[in-house]
């Protein structure tokens, strides 16, 4: 039983760790905080391993936990300091590759950060976590149609914001 | 088809969320309505730019493999088999101890008796008795002055003949 749990947990870790980490990073903009959240998330998953009811995939179940972990982190951070900013990070461009349009990437990234909570959540789950519509719907507890419209509205908002920024520049 | 609907379908198509039949119908529609292509291209472009931006910003997440995995050797749940074995051993040890303690030796069980040292009547003294003994010493005068504030009370004399541990000694009656 224990070895089976160990194997399953390790498989889940290998399959999802990078995506969970990226998803956490989108919330906090810091790898240190993201790693803390990732650790917390997997510990919660391990403790509640038996509570998985099999209605969704393990991945969707894990991202439900990740979402709660992220919300708790944000709440704690808000209590500590009123100013939570993911924009003021010096090392955020360090991962960019040569030939990439840094300005464009920054413009889109800033536009994502300016999205409302519902839209940014869907965008993060889709692009950072790599979840499909059905899994996002399961994580958020909303119908697939709602996921579809939130993503659509979110992308439209990004498009408008990027256009504005391009015009300003 | 309205522009809004076309944009939605374009996003779903980019996300790979259209099933084959709907995708085929959508492609057929676009082939017949080339005027819709700019809208499609714009939405596809913003979808890809968003994906690229998030991928670029979270690229270090691939280093997630470097994050130490949670050790699963010591799982935070109770191992019922070990717990049961330990509990059974404790219960057996307790039963053996209890039975051994209750077993009669030479027809006598190990009952414990508490022996109170006898306190003779003359060892109960009044303040006037104490005065005779302690008057004249520095601390004696001070203590007597304090005792005189409560004149009706009788004080037990110290039991110097009975040692401190003697008072609490437990002995078996046959000793």
Report on this model:
The complex is a heterodimer of chains A (169) and B (175). Chain A has one domain: Winged helix-like DNA-binding domain superfamily/Winged helix DNA-binding domain (Arc Repressor Mutant, subunit A, Orthogonal Bundle), CATH 1.10.10.10. Chain A contains seven helices and no strands. Chain A is globular, with a radius of gyration of 17 Å. By secondary structure, chain B is mainly alpha-helical. Among the domains of chain B are: 58 residues; 58 residues, no CATH class. Chain B contains six helices and four strands. Chain B has a two-stranded antiparallel ribbon. Chain B has a two-stranded antiparallel ribbon with strand order 2-3. In chain B, helix 1 packs across helix 3 and helix 5 runs antiparallel to helix 6.
Question: What's the overall average pLDDT of chain B, rounded?
Answer: 74
Supply the number of helical segments of chain A.
7
| Helical stretch tally of chain B | 6
Biggest beta sheet summary of chain B: 2 strands, antiparallel
Largest inter-chain contact set: A-B, 52 and 33 residues
Summarize the structure.
The complex is a heterodimer of chains A (169) and B (175). With 169 residues, chain A is mainly alpha-helical. Chain A has helices at 2-28, 31-47, 58-80, 102-113, 117-128, 133-140, 144-168.
Properties at a glance:
heterodimer; A: 169 residues; mainly alpha; Arc Repressor Mutant, subunit A; 7 helices; globular; B: 175 residues; two-stranded antiparallel sheet; 4 strands; 50% helix
What layout of secondary structure does this protein have?
The complex is a heterodimer of chains A (169) and B (175).
Chain A: H1 2-28, H2 31-47, H3 58-80, H4 102-113, H5 117-128, H6 133-140, H7 144-168
Helix pairs in contact in A: 1-2, 1-3, 2-3, 3-6, 4-7, 5-7, 6-7
Chain B: H1 3-15, H2 20-32, H3 37-57, H4 80-102, E1 113-114, E2 124-125, H5 127-134, H6 138-147, E3 155-156, E4 170-171
Antiparallel strand pairs in B: 1-4, 2-3
């Amino acid at each position: 039983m224990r070895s089976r749990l160990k194997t399953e947990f390790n498989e889940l870790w290998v399959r999802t760790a990078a995506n969970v980490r990226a998803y956490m990073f989108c919330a906090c903009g810091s790898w240190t905080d993201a790693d803390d959240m990732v650790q917390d998330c997997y510990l919660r998953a391990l403790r509640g391993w038996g509570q998985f009811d099999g209605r969704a995939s393990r991945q969707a179940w894990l991202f439900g936990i990740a979402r709660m972990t992220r919300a708790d982190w944000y709440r704690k951070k808000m209590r500590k300091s009123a100013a939570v900013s993911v924009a003021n990070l010096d090392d955020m461009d360090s991962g960019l590759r040569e030939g990439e349009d840094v300005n464009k990437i920054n413009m889109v990234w800033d536009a994502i950060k300016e999205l409302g909570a519902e839209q940014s959540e869907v965008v993060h789950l889709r692009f950072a976590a790599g979840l499909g519509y059905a899994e996002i719907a399961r994580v958020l507890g909303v119908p697939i149609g709602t996921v579809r419209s939130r993503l659509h509205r979110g992308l439209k908002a990004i498009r408008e914001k990027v256009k504005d920024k391009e015009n300003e520049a | 088809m309205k522009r809004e609907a076309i944009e939605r379908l374009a996003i779903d198509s980019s996300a790979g969320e259209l099933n084959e039949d709907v995708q085929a119908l959508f492609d057929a529609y676009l082939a017949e309505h080339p005027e819709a292509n700019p809208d499609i291209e714009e939405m596809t472009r913003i979808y890809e730019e968003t994906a690229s931006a998030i991928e670029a910003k979270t690229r270090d997440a691939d280093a997630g493999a470097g994050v130490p995995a949670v050790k699963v050797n010591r799982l935070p749940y109770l191992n019922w088999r070990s717990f049961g074995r330990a509990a059974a051993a404790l219960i057996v040890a307790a039963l053996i101890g209890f039975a051994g303690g209750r077993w009669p030796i030479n027809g006598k069980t190990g009952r414990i008796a508490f022996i109170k040292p006898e306190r003779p009547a003359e060892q109960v003294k009044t303040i006037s008795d104490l005065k005779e003994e302690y008057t004249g010493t520095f601390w004696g005068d001070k203590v007597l002055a304090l005792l005189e504030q409560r004149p009706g009370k009788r004080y037990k004399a110290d039991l110097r003949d009975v040692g401190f541990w003697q008072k609490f000694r437990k002995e078996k009656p046959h000793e």
